[in-house]
Amino acid sequence: MSKVTLKEISKILGLSTSTVSKALKDYPDINDITKIRVQELANRLNYTPNAFAQSLRSHETKIIGILVPDLVHHFFSSIINGVIQEAEKYGYLVIVLQSHESYEDEIKQLKLLVDKNIDGIMLSLSDKTVKYDHIINIINGGMPVVLFDKISHLIDCPKVIIDDRKASFRATEYLIKTGCRRIAHITGPLKPKTTIDRYMGYKNALETYDIAFDKSLIYTSDNLSFDDGYNLTAQMMAEHPTIDGIFAFIDPIAIGVLKGLKDQKIKVPKQVSVIGFSNWFMSRTTTPTLTTINQPGDEIGKNAFKLLLKNLNHKREGKVLTSEIVEIPTSIVIRESTKPIPIEISAPI
Amino acid sequence: MSKVTLKEISKILGLSTSTVSKALKDYPDINDITKIRVQELANRLNYTPNAFAQSLRSHETKIIGILVPDLVHHFFSSIINGVIQEAEKYGYLVIVLQSHESYEDEIKQLKLLVDKNIDGIMLSLSDKTVKYDHIINIINGGMPVVLFDKISHLIDCPKVIIDDRKASFRATEYLIKTGCRRIAHITGPLKPKTTIDRYMGYKNALETYDIAFDKSLIYTSDNLSFDDGYNLTAQMMAEHPTIDGIFAFIDPIAIGVLKGLKDQKIKVPKQVSVIGFSNWFMSRTTTPTLTTINQPGDEIGKNAFKLLLKNLNHKREGKVLTSEIVEIPTSIVIRESTKPIPIEISAPI
DNA sequence: AATCAGACCGAAAACGTTTTCGGTAAATAA
DNA sequence: TTATTTACCGAAAACGTTTTCGGTCTGATT
Q: The whole model's pTM is what?
């Protein structure tokens, strides 16, 4: 435990605290012999500076905060993992907080972080957040903030995003290229930007490949669950027996769909192809394994921290803060729930 | 941003900082009118006390640290979730760190936490940790510590555990009660206590039900992976075609086994029953769904924090710290990969 | 002998808060 | 009137560090 202080060391050696402090920090105006005496004693006593006192003077904590909607999610926990790993390299510790997709909680938790005087904040907006004053105020107060994943362009700060629209376009395009023509989309709750983006990517792909958009092929899952996917499958196949492809908003839904199709004796991918989104761990353990879009959470986390660090430095040096936007590329992970691309089409278009 | 200080408020109102401080904390020796004047101005200026300065005086940060081997695991992230939720109730923030199952990292990360002068630490030991001096020293230094999940009884502090042995006994017992007699066990790496406990629970169950223990029915998975489970299945069924039950150390292995059995055209549970451990999310999405042991991570986290809080209070009050051990009950989640218990046996024994 | 330059060290202020201990005035009691 | 309480407020120290600004020596230079 860090109990021994500069004062105690100085008393033992008959020096002043200033001298001891300077000796430990290798100031040039301290005699080498004195330095050695101080450093040796400090080592022997396991001296470590008191972090509060340092923070009080320097106005820096070397602690940052990250606020996510829900920690118990592979996507978010891997983002946090990326943040922690990157932060560690630069000596920063990370406080983790959750908003549970609640606007009130988001405000409350952010206030906790701000009140602790930590150095910076990274956050992913809750689904319910439609006003951004609480965040803009924090930024205007001088606190470096980085947004990731669920962001808003109304907030002027650095952001890390994946291009949901582009990824979703690719997913749909892949279904089309593998021969699907009646492609259903299971979307999520209305508000979040990701929902809209993935929906638009789907729609754009259809347009690009001259496939008529049919609104009745859009189904909605409110809680993004396995059960939703399972239950919607029966409804989908009853209303549209000709469906030959299903693009789900997120893997758990897609996995529910797989099970639903199996129960209906519908062959995947022979009769219906299924593609998910997010590359959850379990998507490679299903039967058949699930084709999906990979979002590299680690990379999002690492890049978010890098942006934050940049602004922490800019702030310290009095420079103007950046608001750059980093886009993390996604990739499509092709598995068994979709057909392979026929040779004649797989050439670049 | 918390910029306005007591001094500034005092200057505006023509008071001393002491008076302002006392007014805000409702000291009895301050005039009510003065209190109101101070509190109103403080509100108007959005005053929040400087956390460093408070910590410097009080020697309390209201921050605790948690160190887990790996955050990106449903089990650990749900523990952290439990900790954060419980900590929030009492105004504590949580710094999250990972050891990546490395002894050196464990030491390093713990030192970071100790040096930050946080109030307490909760940790789950890394697999590689066989010496405990680094932790014992921290405890002797006066830092409250709580161990959970991967613990050692050589460390004198509060602990939260699940009784792996009992749970494993139950899992094996369930297989026996549903008619299995040649039960294989896939165990984990040798060192960790959990490996041994689950192995012993398996063995005890066999003894209790007068089934001969056959060492050749024990298989080892080194990296606890889906692939290990898959690959071991072929070997197991080749060496012991009469196997009718498989108890895997952890769900991913069990799910690999399910896939392996399917590839070998072995019916589950008709020919072979399979039971996992940990109730990973995906275990309810497989075909067949997996019977497993549920470990309530949230409860572990919440209880761990409660123990820590108790010792934080004890420390503040100068009381002696407790070292109590809380055992979190597990439950068996019966799904499709095992047979139901026959009526005549299911009566209490 | 007087001056000057280093070399080395310490005093003190500052970061912002909390709390103890008086101190002054007014109000009450003697 | 004097003594004593009560009500209210402020000075100051403390938490532990960092850094500026002198200050005191020694030894060298005129």
A: 0.87
